[in-house]
Design goal:
mainly beta; about 0% helix; about 110 residues
Amino acid sequence: QVVESGGGLVQPGGSLRLSCKVLGLTLDYYAIAWFRQAPGKERERVATTVRDGDTRYADSAKGRFTISRDNARNTVYLQMNSLKPEDTAVYYCNFRDYWGQGTQVTVSS
């Protein structure tokens, strides 16, 4: 099971940190990714962390978002800074074949 948290309403330019807790499995040796889906749009990959610590970002996230993992806590984080209204979406965590229920991020003044 994958459980996301940390979403909310934030003003443009603000920050949020999302958490993805993996239950019943261990993170070690597997990649894990954050996706997002805005209304009327396809789900898109935002950031990925792989087992050797390598990270990859969508162009829209580079320089503003940081993905990190804490294997001891079975948790992956997405630190989002300088948020823009176009970042508004439901953010999902994906681990192997598992998806969380999503957490809503709304960027609005």
